[in-house]
């Protein structure tokens, strides 16, 4: 009988943990009959399948095919469509011609319009873009279809913007915000995105002011499966990853909501971001956001959603969304501290607490935090040392990444159980003081420096109630203690997975430490367990089991293909050619051309840019091929009032996808590319001398006008790349094996020419 509460309470904790994840997503049922007026995941999947048949980045043949498909589908719904075309370079110096698809549903009143937003271009050069962002386009197409079937006339206009060139620098959104007359009508944006191929879709707000009104309206719209919290919102604002909505906020002062899923991150921007791998529950989740929000905001007053006040908010099972103003943060912190002090006084008076045992209680707390923190911090470096091929997964989330999350979470639990097994002779009430002090310090820090995480204090109130129970009862009811521990599980458990999934396995330390901190909040119950040593042993055994499972799956297969890269690099000035790769562990396919010889240092450090700043890892001599270099015509080189103006035009002599121009170390006063002036901010903060990246459509030229001071010498390095290495008639490169894919985030399968232009 004594074992029964332990077994049952453990099962209840496991069930609560499972439920904290289960309620995040709707469940897709294939072939389910859905009425015409409701969102159908199956109907949305038809669009995903059509959109993701081929890579469709800007300048690729399928790009036009996808755009035409979207236009035709909107027209089938009875909507008048239009295209907005134009050059733009955004804020990142990435020039392209964007072609946005637009449509509009007329409302009955003259207020602000609701804008539905996603992008149709896939990432160059191999991504099929099923999730990013075919899923977003499909969500909007199916959602608008269902909405129109209701035959209801909205009060507000509904603008549909399927943007272009998002992957290149948010260029389509930039074009709309800067040039389109409809911008002045927009009151709110709903943007659908992806950074993986599965998992819950997180709501992330974009606002220049407070979030108070936005979160209140979001809650009022009442989506069935909201996944949102102000901590993720705060972290998102710190990260460099932007979406199209960022342009609306920064340049148009328009508020909005992002809805983006991030799990199965290993598919992101790859050839396997395909129709089959898109999680159906995830697509259903996007639809579960769109429909209630479309209905609500198309009829709500969205003329002024700006607010000076911020709210703390988080989702929790059964209650959906909980929100309260920032002004409550300090009072809630103070109340918790006062309650704790009162309990301390009561505990000492009743002789339940004593100073010596309280001090001893800090030993397991510090032991577990240090051990689990160190193991979590160095886990990714250790795994990359053990499995060097992981270095070729540039975003840092491996195919077996979920097994590692389970493994290190179990290791953390094992460490915690072991530590408190050693301190089982100390009364529970004394053991609870140290965890509370650690937690209240954390809550105090976030109250000052990371207010979005201030909801951390909510489970601490339950902990204080459990502390009170232990002070006043010798043998508290175990099921009551389970109940008091549920808020910690419901609120924090999803974060254990979210951090390494979203930010890569380098953030495993967040999982190990958060697991430890959750364990502390469950101590009022766990201290009642007599077999903590056995639970520690079981946790370590399971840790070993998941590590073995991860090891078995550490290789590459058809379902888990290895990222590979190969380039042919021709220096037209030196008339030298080399094979180059970004792989740290060259595959057998790459090794046909690359020996494990370190990359030419000059070539590696001075070459075309990539997302993670990757350099070539290995190079090898290559045969010279007659690859036409671009024509560079200097049309003007003059000095007026100590300002030197250089005007040149670069024209490709072969089909190319990308042209990149670097300068030597000069200060540029002004730069104009194809009639688009580069931002002053970019010119002052450009990295590595990069002037512009031009993503080419239809063999277009690149017209450059530079202004520099007269006393500076100017040298340009021109990189011209085509992603046709495997198809070009000058080469006979075999196709990759089925267990290999092109490496994302770097220039790949490319013929690259390098050419310098010097100005005396």
- Whole-number mean pLDDT: 93
Number of helices: 23
Biggest beta sheet summary: 14 strands, mixed
**Structural Rg:** 29 Å
Unreliable parts: none
Number of strands: 23
Structural class based on helices, strands and sheet pairing:
alpha+beta
Which range best describes the helical content: under 10%, 10-25%, 25-40%, 40-55%, 55-70% or over 70%? 40-55%
**Oligomeric state of shown chains:** single chain
In percent, how much strand structure appears in the residues? 15-25%
General shape:
globular
Terminal CA distance reads 92 Å
Can you give keywords for this protein?
760 residues; 14-stranded mixed β-sheet; five-stranded antiparallel β-sheet; 41% helix
Give an overview of the whole structure.
With 760 residues, this protein is α+β, with helices and mostly antiparallel strands. The protein contains 23 helices and 23 strands. Strands 1, 2, 3, 4, 5, 6, 7, 11, 12, 13, 16, 19, 21 and 23 form a 14-stranded mixed beta sheet that branches. Strands 14-15-20-17-18 form a five-stranded antiparallel beta sheet. It has a two-stranded antiparallel ribbon with strand order 8-9. Strand 17 (668-673) and strand 18 form a beta hairpin. The N and C termini lie far apart (92 Å). The model has no long low-confidence stretch (mean pLDDT 93).
Concise description?
The chain is α+β, with helices and mostly antiparallel strands. The strands form four sheets. Strands 1, 2, 3, 4, 5, 6, 7, 11, 12, 13, 16, 19, 21 and 23 form a 14-stranded mixed beta sheet that branches. The chain has a five-stranded antiparallel beta sheet with strand order 14-15-20-17-18. A two-stranded antiparallel ribbon has the order 8-9.
């Amino acid at each position: 009988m004594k074992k029964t509460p332990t077994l049952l309470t453990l099962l209840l904790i496991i069930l609560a943990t499972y439920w904290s994840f289960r309620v995040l997503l709707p469940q897709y049922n294939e072939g389910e009959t859905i009425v015409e007026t409701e969102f159908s995941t199956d109907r949305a999947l038809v669009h995903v399948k059509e959109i993701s048949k081929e890579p469709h980045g800007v300048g690729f043949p399928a790009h036009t095919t996808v755009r035409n498909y979207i236009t035709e589908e909107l027209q089938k719904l009875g909507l008048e469509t239009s295209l907005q075309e134009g050059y733009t370079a955004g804020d990142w110096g990435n020039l392209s011609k964007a072609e946005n698809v637009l449509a509009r549903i007329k409302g009955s009143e003259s207020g602000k319009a609701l804008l539905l937003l996603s992008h149709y271009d896939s990432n160059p050069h191999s991504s099929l873009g099923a999730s990013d962002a075919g899923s977003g386009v499909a969500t909007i197409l199916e959602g608008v279809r269902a909405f129109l079937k209701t035959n209801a006339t909205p009060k507000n206009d509904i603008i549909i913007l399927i943007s272009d060139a998002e992957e290149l620098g948010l260029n389509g959104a930039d074009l709309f915000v800067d040039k389109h007359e409809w911008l002045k009508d927009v009151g709110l944006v709903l943007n659908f995105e992806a950074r993986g191929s599965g998992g819950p879709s997180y709501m992330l707000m974009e606002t220049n002011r407070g979030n108070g009104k936005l979160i209140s309206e979001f809650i009022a719209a009442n989506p069935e499966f909201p996944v949102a919290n102000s901590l993720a919102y705060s972290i998102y604002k710190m990260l460099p990853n932007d979406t199209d909505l960022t342009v609306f906020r920064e340049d148009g002062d328009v508020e909005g909501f992002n809805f983006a899923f991030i799990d199965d991150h290993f598919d992101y921007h790859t050839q396997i971001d395909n129709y089959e791998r898109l999680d159906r529950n995830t697509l259903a989740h996007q639809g579960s956001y769109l429909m209630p929000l479309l209905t609500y905001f198309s009829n709500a007053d969205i003329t002024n959603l700006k607010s000076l006040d911020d709210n703390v908010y988080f989702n929790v099972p059964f209650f959906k969304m909980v929100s309260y103003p920032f002004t409550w943060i300090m009072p809630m912190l103070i109340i918790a501290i006062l309650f704790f002090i009162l309990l301390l006084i009561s505990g000492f008076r009743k002789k339940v607490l004593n100073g010596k045992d309280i001090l001893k209680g800090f030993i397991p707390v510090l032991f577990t935090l240090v051990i689990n923190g160190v193991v979590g911090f160095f886990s990714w470096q250790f795994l990359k040392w053990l499995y060097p091929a992981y270095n070729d997964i540039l975003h840092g989330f491996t195919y077996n990444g979920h097994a590692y999350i389970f493994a290190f979470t179990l290791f953390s639990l094992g460490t915690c159980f072991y530590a408190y097994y050693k301190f089982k002779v100390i009364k529970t009430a004394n053991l609870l003081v140290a965890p509370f002090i650690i937690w209240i310090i954390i809550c105090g820090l976030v109250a000052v420096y990371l207010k979005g995480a201030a909801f951390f204090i909510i489970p601490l109130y339950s902990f204080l109630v459990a502390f009170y129970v232990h002070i006043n009862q010798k043998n508290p009811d175990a099921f009551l203690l389970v109940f008091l521990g549920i808020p910690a599980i419901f609120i924090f458990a999803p974060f254990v997975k979210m951090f390494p999934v979203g930010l890569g396995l380098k953030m495993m330390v967040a999982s190990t430490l958060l697991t430890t901190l959750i364990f502390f909040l469950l101590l009022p119950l766990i201290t009642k367990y007599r077999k903590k040593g056995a639970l520690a042993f079981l946790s370590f055994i399971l840790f070993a089991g998941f590590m073995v499972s991860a090891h078995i799956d550490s290789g590459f297969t058809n379902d888990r293909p290895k990222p590979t890269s190969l380039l042919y690099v021709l220096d037209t000035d030196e008339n030298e050619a080399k094979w180059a790769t970004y792989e740290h562990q060259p595959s057998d396919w790459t090794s046909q051309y690359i020996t494990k010889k370190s990359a030419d240092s000059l070539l590696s450090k001075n070459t075309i840019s990539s997302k993670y700043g990757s350099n070539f890892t290995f190079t090898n001599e290559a045969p010279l091929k007659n690859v036409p270099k671009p024509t560079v015509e200097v049309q003007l080189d003059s000095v007026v009032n100590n300002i030197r103006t250089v005007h040149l035009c670069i024209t490709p002599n072969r089909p190319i996808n990308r042209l990149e121009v670097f300068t030597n170390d000069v200060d540029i006063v002004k730069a104009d590319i194809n009639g688009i002036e580069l931002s002053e901010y970019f010119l002052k903060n450009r990295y590595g001398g990069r002037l512009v990246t031009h993503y080419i459509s239809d063999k277009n030229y690149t017209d450059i006008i530079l202004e520099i001071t007269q006393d500076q010498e100017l040298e340009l390095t021109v990189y011209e790349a085509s992603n046709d290495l495997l198809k070009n008639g000058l080469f006979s490169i075999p196709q990759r094996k089925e267990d290999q894919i092109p490496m994302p985030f770097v220039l790949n399968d490319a013929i690259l020419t390098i050419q310098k232009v010097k100005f005396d």
